[in-house]
Structure prediction request, 319 residues.
Amino acid sequence: MKRIGVLTSGGDAPGMNAAIRSVVRKAIYHGIEVYGINYGFQGLIDGDIRKMELGSVGDIIQRGGTMLYSARCEDFKTEEGQLKGIETLEHYGIEGLVVIGGDGSFRGAEKLTERGYPCIGVPGTIDNDIPGTDFTIGFDTALNTISEAIDKIRDTATSHERTYIIEVMGRDAGDLALWAGLADGAESVLIPEAEDTIEDVIDRLKRGNERGKRHSIIIIAEGYGSGVDFAREIEEKAKLETRVTVLGHTQRGGSPSASDRVLGSRLGAAAVDILRKGSAGRMVGIQNNEIVDHDIVEVLSQKHHIDLDMYRLSKELSI
Ligand code: ADP
Prediction:
């Protein structure tokens, strides 16, 4: 392979830049030219492409977001869009493509591979919702951002007798909520994968109050429901004063953690190695601290599973 491309697609995640840098430098190290495609699959359709040099990816490892920008592109879901994308790639003589993104982006990569165009997926999303990898790029940074925010909320919480509800991201996955719950000692964690009801939460709040707890922190995953609605229900049913914080897009930003920079670097390089071997339609990941790769179709057909032992632990530790 003489020339490859790289793009980031879907929701951005801190650490994507480290992955781009790694793809570019690893490829150039092996004598392969690299083209960066701006705005994900939209850029592929529009021909928004630039050649990447060693210096193009200097000074980005510490930056959040993605230097190649990202976009959602409905046109790429059509045959016409995909063929237009392949036309662009062929025009530039690009023989393989690294797609950094979430499961939606992998569906695009899979479509290209099906049409005979070799793609490799690199999991980049703060949600940690991709099967076949223990961690996705961006999850650790987002978790630390949440943790810092909750520490601050806890400071004010200790000054008032209130219940604090914090809504965190994660789409349909509860990983960010669960890990944040453990990291921050939350009284309750509500995730879509478990079936805690408002009554369970109120019972715990009441038990806490009886023990003299002056405040409580409840973390709710966006996939479970709305923090604002949940707070209203708690106020009505338990007659407790509540405050809600929806952390929103602060969770997606910021300088990537060291861990995400290392993960991005390892996975980006692994994707280049797989293309060099002549494989296609694979997703790279990390499992038990080993770099692995899986058939992307298989990844897309599986469901992400949360660690329910961790969920039980979070309950045991917040009795
Ligand atoms: P993420 O990659 O973060 O899950 P999305 O689900 O928004 O984000 O997907 C990102 C992009 O991937 C979409 O805007 C679209 O261009 C492309 N994509 C998603 N699903 C498909 C599909 N079934 N076929 C082709 N391309 C797709």
Notes: The radius of gyration is 22 Å. The chain has two domains: 3-138+256-301, 140-252.
